[in-house]
From TrEMBL, chain A:
One of its GO terms (biological process) is DNA-templated transcription. It is found in: Nucleus. This is DNA-directed RNA polymerase III subunit RPC3. Keywords: DNA-directed RNA polymerase, Nucleus, Transcription. Residues 8-66 form the RNA polymerase III subunit RPC82-related helix-turn-helix domain. DNA-dependent RNA polymerase catalyzes the transcription of DNA into RNA using the four ribonucleoside triphosphates as substrates. Specific core component of RNA polymerase III which synthesizes small RNAs, such as 5S rRNA and tRNAs. Residues 200-319 form the RNA polymerase III Rpc82 C -terminal domain. The keyword Calcium does not apply. GO terms for molecular function: single-stranded DNA binding. Pfam families: HTH_9, RNA_pol_Rpc82, RPC3_helical, WHD_POLR3C. Belongs to the eukaryotic RPC3/POLR3C RNA polymerase subunit family. GO terms for cellular component: RNA polymerase III complex. Residues 325-402 form the DNA-directed RNA polymerase III subunit RPC3 winged-helix domain.
UniProtKB/TrEMBL annotation, chain B:
Residues 169-205, 218-232 have a biased composition (Acidic residues). Residues 136-163 have a biased composition (Basic and acidic residues). One of its GO terms (cellular component) is RNA polymerase III complex. One of its GO terms (biological process) is transcription by RNA polymerase III. It is found in: Nucleus. InterPro entries: RNA_pol_III_Rpc31. Pfam families: RNA_pol_3_Rpc31 (PF11705). This is DNA-directed RNA polymerase III subunit RPC7. Signal peptide: none annotated. Residues 30-51, 119-232 are annotated as: Disordered. Keywords: DNA-directed RNA polymerase, Nucleus, Transcription. It comes from Zootermopsis nevadensis (Dampwood termite). Belongs to the eukaryotic RPC7 RNA polymerase subunit family. The lineage of its organism: Eukaryota, Metazoa, Ecdysozoa, Arthropoda, Hexapoda. Its main location: nucleus.
UniProtKB/TrEMBL annotation, chain C:
The keyword Transcription applies. GO terms for cellular component: cytoplasm; nucleoplasm; RNA polymerase III complex. Residues 1-10 have a biased composition (Basic and acidic residues). This is DNA-directed RNA polymerase III subunit RPC6. Pfam families: RNA_pol_Rpc34. Residues 1-22 are annotated as: Disordered. It is found in: Nucleus. Belongs to the eukaryotic RPC34/RPC39 RNA polymerase subunit family. The keyword Protein biosynthesis does not apply. Residues 11-21 have a biased composition (Polar residues). It comes from Zootermopsis nevadensis (Dampwood termite). Keywords: DNA-directed RNA polymerase, Nucleus, Transcription. Its main location: nucleus. Signal peptide: none annotated.
Length: 507, 232, 310
């Protein structure tokens, strides 16, 4: 794990959970695992605080523990990858909202907020929030419970592993088939609890957490569909969607290449939907085009049942990574540099002379760009000595090539750094204007308070004027800056997702 | 026949350098770049500007989600603060403070069986909370307010002492739950405008604890307690 | 010279002469029989009773008379029998001139750089330069500036048309690479193909028909460009393909090969829009490598950030 990644992880912990958790997190990042007693020393924090921090981090699944050297002492390990996923939470929630509705979004949000919880508590809290936001007296608990069951069924939430019995340091395990076993919720108990009366919905001890990988699966599919739609058209996008659906019936979600899908079934599925008539008419043609396209998402792997087609997830993400990096080269170094980059990619190994010639860029410019790309590690160079007899000088060839893995890792580091910079700047802008921001917050509170106490509009106006126009303008400027940085962080995470997914298929 | 040819890019009257110019990509005879007369600027002019950020309703919605989530965590018990929450002296501005009730978003319910025993709340009287030496006058204020409850507290502590011998290390679930509730209950109070005798009980003050110190927390105090004194 | 009596020496001389002649014939015959050419050693083996100086004079004579071509293989000189039709050309020329001439001839219309001539001939620079001047004056060879390096000159036979790799072909005007011209052609070709692609958007005939419409052969493009009349030089279809290939590496077009070997091109969309990393200054920052929390390049004081945030 790199220093840059660690620094990013640290900032994220600070922002979400505070300084104490950050310090404990930093300490654990530096080593594979550590027992409790060593942490106060290296963090200079009191033991009690360290314990609190660990509890929180375990609750949110950022830290795991296992039996250490002594049977009753645990060793704690930080899962830095999971911490960084905090950046992606808004995306998870948006997916829920658009695909499954507001209730689903609320339920997932409630689990994310707590780290993990029982279904009934989640449902009750979601109900409370819905009542507030919709401004209604009652919310249908049955709907919420049913929605929860849908989420279980679709594997967006999963059971937390159970502690083993009679071990000093509990070992948490769960069987595969238990993961998505729906909870049995007693509605009467649930509604009693919701109304504040003592009640038992019957699912105490069954803890649920969000299955983030399931969301990643949907993101992956979305990216592929959107790429094909860009490349070909919306009909092709829909076809890929259908193909994915068929794929899930017969393939594990994270394999590199799916099991074959017969054309006949695919055509059936396409014909059933009505919003893409052109697609239904030309299914076979679209399939052929997709299969022949250089993106390589789909291949024909057999002829029975009208043709057997499979999805190449690994290939898809290789292509998407190339596209991403080519785009970066273009924006960072210019279109001529991007031409050189693609040229080296196509030729695999190429000399400087050839680059100039084929790319049709003036020699000096070509050399400069090639050198820049090399310096920033977008290109790699191989030296080849051509050995000749002694009366002719040794000719050394310099061949340029691209090691995609290496470049992808490098760009991932860039993303980490950019994220770190954005977060740092965001905090900096906030703290530079802290006095002003706090003043605004106080005024807002006062206004709220006074409204509740029934202040007149004159009094309210008076309070508002405590903020002068230039101050208001400045605050607005700061607000825009912070928003922009936040947006950038969300979009940076998108790039990270593609690269991480590509690298995970390479293992 | 003639002599051997010469190798490399050297010779022919060019000033020699320690590395082979050819390797840099300059063929023999090409002009090298001009001499550098001053240090390069720290922030050279940017040739390629960043592409504009993607905009849209979805992006804005996610922004709001992000803000809300961070705000929620900040105000939840998950956000651990290092210092005492509130000032001691009643301030003029307090009149306008809405009781923010930090931790108002509900208490974190830990399922202690899922945690290693060392992290579970201890059931020793004094071991449960880190005792801090009296630093702020807040504690004094509390002592004054709570002094009437000392009798009640004494009773409770007696009860605890009896139970304590059975439970070491927090293995008992019932005890654990009780502790947990107390812990959560206490965490629910930040701006202690209201008196809550039960919570104040266990938290105690230095004065009371020193009085009742039965020596068991000696081993617990491992570190400097000087820097932070969380009051629950 | 042997120390013989005068009579003997004449007779010996005659004998020597006739034996020299027969040696010459034998050497020629040997060379005829060998496709690769014969080395001094081969000759020695063939005519062992020849003294070294006699051997050398025969060889030189045969060279001078244009019977032999001289080759240098791995440090050894080889003498190859020349094609009789070519023997006429260099009569009366110096041996070394002949060597240099044949080296240059071998390089064809791509020409050969002076340094390479030197290595092949093993002549010292001063001598070589003199020979080259002589040959140039005799209008047997010429020097042509090569586009691949502006100071480099290549030598080739006088009557030859230099190859495109030397002159640069249509893309060079007096040794200057016409970058702008290439860019304009690049843009025009793309416009042509992009228009074709756009036209297929509303095609109702199905995707395969649409795709076929969007394809254009290099000849189609060539025709379009020629009709535009933007080029003052006559461009060939091959020239067009060179330009279309640059579009390929721009990621803007795709190429496929038809059954008869010709190339088809069509405009394509990239798989992804610009990634998030390049939407923030860091992604395009020239000093990213120097950026850290300590030091003058840091996120809090970053000038690019400041500009971007305003």
């Amino acid at each position: 794990m790199s220093t840059q990644f660690g620094a990013l992880c640290s900032l994220i912990l600070l922002e979400h959970f505070g300084e104490i958790v950050q310090k404990v997190g930093n300490d654990l990042y530096k080593c594979q695992s550590k027992p409790l007693r060593l942490i106060p020393g290296s963090t200079k924090l009191p033991l009690q605080k360290v314990k609190e921090a660990l509890r929180i981090m375990i609750q949110y699944d950022f830290v795991t523990f296992s039996m250490g050297q002594l049977p009753d002492r645990a060793e704690y390990t930080l899962l830095a990858d999971k911490v960084v996923l905090l950046l992606r939470y808004p995306r998870y929630l948006l997916l829920m909202k658009t695909q499954y509705g507001d209730e689903a979004e609320m339920l997932i949000e409630e689990i994310l907020r707590q780290g993990k919880d029982t279904a009934s508590r989640v449902i009750i809290r979601a109900a409370t929030r819905l009542k507030e936001s919709l401004k209604v007296e009652k919310v249908c608990l049955v709907t919420l419970r049913d929605k929860f069951l849908v989420l279980v069924n679709k594997q967006f939430v999963m059971r937390c592993p159970y502690p083993s019995e009679e071990k000093d340091v509990p070992e948490l395990t769960i069987k595969e088939k238990q993961l998505y076993l729906p909870p049995d919720i007693n509605l009467k108990g649930l509604s009693d609890l919701e109304e504040g009366k003592p009640g038992n919905p019957g699912d105490e001890g069954i803890c649920w957490r969000v299955n983030l990988d399931r969301f990643h699966q949907d993101f992956r599919d979305q990216i592929m569909v959107s790429a094909i739609s860009r490349r070909l058209d919306d009909n092709a996008g829909e076809l890929l969607r259908q193909l994915l659906k068929q794929m899930y019936l017969r393939t594990e979600p994270w394999v590199a290449t799916s099991n074959p899908v017969p054309f006949t079934e695919l055509r059936e599925a396409v014909r059933k939907q009505s919003s893409y008539p052109l697609l239904a008419q030309y299914v076979d043609q679209y399939l052929k085009i997709m299969e022949e396209d250089s993106s390589g998402f789909v291949s024909k792997v057999g002829d029975s049942s009208g043709g057997q087609y499979s999805l190449n997830m690994k290939t898809a993400f290789i292509q998407l990574t190339w596209a991403t990096i080519e785009n970066i080269v273009m924006e960072r170094f210019g279109s001529k540099a991007a031409r050189i980059f693609r040229l080296v990619k196509a030729k695999k190994f190429v000399e400087q002379e050839q680059i100039q010639q084929i790319a049709m860029i003036p020699a000096k410019e070509a050399k400069l760009l090639t050198y820049k790309l090399l310096e920033e590690n977008f290109l790699q160079m191989q030296e080849l000595r051509k050995s000749l007899a002694s009366n002719v000088p040794n000719k050394t060839f310099f061949l340029f090539y691209i090691d995609l893995n290496q470049v992808a890792r490098m760009v991932l580091e860039m993303c980490c750094k950019a994220l770190y910079n954005a977060m740092t700047r965001r905090e900096y802008e906030r703290s530079e204007n802290r006095r002003m921001i706090e003043k605004q917050q106080r005024i807002e509170l006062i206004t709220l308070n006074m409204k509740e106490q029934g202040a007149t509009s004159e009094q309210l106006a008076e309070i508002e004027e405590m903020l002068t126009p230039p101050e208001q303008a400045l605050l607005e400027k700061v607000r825009i800056m912070i928003n922009r940085l936040n947006e950038a962080e969300l979009q940076l995470d998108e790039t990270m997702f593609i690269l991480q997914l590509y690298l995970s298929y390479q293992i | 026949m003639a002599g051997r040819g010469r190798g490399g890019g050297r010779g022919r009257g060019r000033a020699s350098m320690s590395f082979n110019v050819e390797q840099l990509g300059f063929t023999a005879g090409e002009a090298l770049p001009g001499p550098v007369l001053q240090p390069p600027p720290i922030y050279p002019p940017m040739e390629n500007k960043p592409v504009p950020l993607q905009t849209g309703v979805e992006g804005e919605y996610m922004l709001a989600l992000k803000r809300d989530f961070v705000e929620f965590l900040r105000e939840s018990p998950a956000f651990i603060t290092p210092t005492a929450a509130k000032a001691d002296i009643e301030r003029y501005s307090d009149r306008y403070q809405v009781a923010l009730a930090k931790k108002s978003h509900g208490e974190l319910k830990f399922d202690w069986a899922r945690f290693p025993p060392e992290l579970r709340p201890q059931t020793k009287i004094t071991g449960k909370r880190k005792q801090q030496p009296a630093k702020s006058t807040e504690k004094q204020a509390k002592i004054i307010r709570k002094s009437v409850d000392i009798v009640g507290r004494l009773d409770e502590l007696e009860k605890k002492e009896e139970q304590q011998s059975d439970t070491e290390g927090g293995g008992d679930e019932a005890e654990g739950k009780e502790d947990e509730e107390k812990e959560d209950g206490e965490e629910g109070v930040m701006e202690d405008m209201e008196d809550d005798p039960d919570e104040e009980m266990d938290e105690g003050t230095d004065y009371i604890n020193n009085y009742f110190d039965n020596g068991e927390n000696y081993l617990d105090e491992e570190d400097d307690n000087l820097d932070d004194g969380p009051i629950y | 010279m042997t120390t013989n009596k005068p009579e003997e020496s004449v007779r010996n001389g005659n004998d020597q002469l006739s034996s020299l002649e027969s040696s010459e014939h034998r050497i020629l015959a040997l060379a005829k029989g060998s496709g690769k050419g014969i080395s001094d050693k081969d000759i020695q083996n063939e005519v062992p009773d020849l003294r070294p100086d006699q051997r050398a004079s025969i060889i030189n004579k045969l060279l001078a008379q244009g019977y032999f071509d001289l080759f240098n293989q791995g440090g050894t000189l080889l003498y190859k029998l020349k094609d009789p039709s070519r023997i006429q050309k260099v009569k009366g020329a110096d041996n070394e001139e002949k060597i240099v001439y044949s080296i240059i001839e071998e390089a064809g219309n791509k020409g050969i750089w002076i340094r390479d001539i030197r290595f092949k001939s093993n002549l010292i620079p001063t001598q070589l330069n003199k020979i080259l001047k002589i040959l140039e004056n005799k209008k047997l060879i010429k020097a042509v500036k090569s586009v691949s390096a502006s100071k480099k000159k290549v030598y080739m036979l006088y009557n030859l048309e230099p190859d495109r790799t030397v002159t640069g072909g249509a893309w060079y005007c007096d040794q200057d690479f016409e970058a702008e011209f290439v860019d304009v052609l690049n843009q025009q070709c793309y416009r042509f193909l992009h228009q074709k692609l756009e036209a297929t958007r509303d095609c109702k005939g199905g995707p395969i028909a649409a795709r076929n419409i969007s394809y254009a052969s290099s000849k189609d493009v060539w025709k379009y460009i020629s009709e535009l009349g933007i080029s003052k030089v006559q461009l060939s279809v091959e020239d067009m393909e060179t330009i279309l290939d640059t579009l390929l590496y721009d990621g803007k077009v795709e190429r496929c090969v038809t059954t008869d070997g010709s190339h088809l091109y069509r405009a394509v969309e990239s798989l992804l829009p610009a990634p998030g990393i390049v939407r923030i200054p860091c992604g395009v920052c020239p000093v990213l490598r120097h950026c850290s929390d300590v030091g003058s390049v840091n996120p809090k004081k970053c000038v690019y950030m400041k500009e971007w945030l305003e």
